[in-house]
Amino acid sequence: MSTDVVKTQSEFQKINSCAKRPTDIWTNYLYYTFSLRLVYLIRKTRITPNILTLTALVLVLIGSGLFAVGVRSDVIWGLVLIQISYVFDCADGQLARYKKQYSPIGGWLDQTADRIKEFVVYFSLAYGYTRFHPRNTHIWMWAMVALFGLFLLEYFGQIDMFRGDQFKRVVPEHGSANMAPEGSDIPDTGDTFSRVRRLRSFIPFRSFIIGEQYFAMLVFIAFDAVYPFLVFVSIVSVVMAFYRPVIDYIKYRRRLAA
């Protein structure tokens, strides 16, 4: 094996180590496949993490504009752009860690851009759908519930509710809450709770974190299922918004009793 090949592999491994793991399987095996290679390609350029964040935002704005048209071909192109935007969204954090380019404004920009993207995506999907289904106004209700649930998930992912400093978990990239494998921090004491949590760790679903949201969008919208997608996101996000703090509280009480 040549020296150049070894050097390339070593550099890519370094970039790969900058990806936050563990994460959902879709981000790890699908989106990271592209984001890591993007970071490798631009690692020696003047492109900054903030530029990647803004690029992701612009792609979502354009894609959402296509969603709002409501025509099938435009919606598919919008879906492609928004999926690509998530690759840039993953890459900005990876590039920041690789180049050690951290800044308060970068964190603020990332969080603000994510909230804008959520709003425009769900608003445009609902608007585009009603253009061809004007009598189905219930979709606006589902869009609002979906946004409410996603905002709650983001909030619970950022606060340290029921967590002392000794139990504090690292908040992952893009506001995704506790991406450690479910049950990995619960000792198997033989009781029902620990057994259920251990079984839960084998299910390839975290807590509807951002990669799972993007993958769900990919599947539903690819099959022209806009209305079912908004219903699905609404139900899952609201359920997870209750699930997270309840499980956090139970784990917190168990740790205190340990």
TrEMBL record:
GO cellular component term of the entry, any: membrane
InterPro entries for the chain: CDP-OH_P_trans (IPR000462), CDP-OH_PTrfase_TM_dom (IPR043130), CDP_ALCOHOL_P_TRANSF_CS (IPR048254)
Biological process terms in GO annotation: phospholipid biosynthetic process
Name used for this protein in its record: CDP-alcohol phosphatidyltransferase
A GO term, aspect molecular function: phosphotransferase activity, for other substituted phosphate groups
Family: Belongs to the CDP-alcohol phosphatidyltransferase class-I family.
Transmembrane portions of the chain: 51-71, 139-157, 203-223, 229-247
Signal sequence, start to end: none
Record bears the keyword Cell cycle: no
Keywords, in A-Z order: Membrane, Transferase, Transmembrane, Transmembrane helix
Family matches, as Pfam families: CDP-OH_P_transf
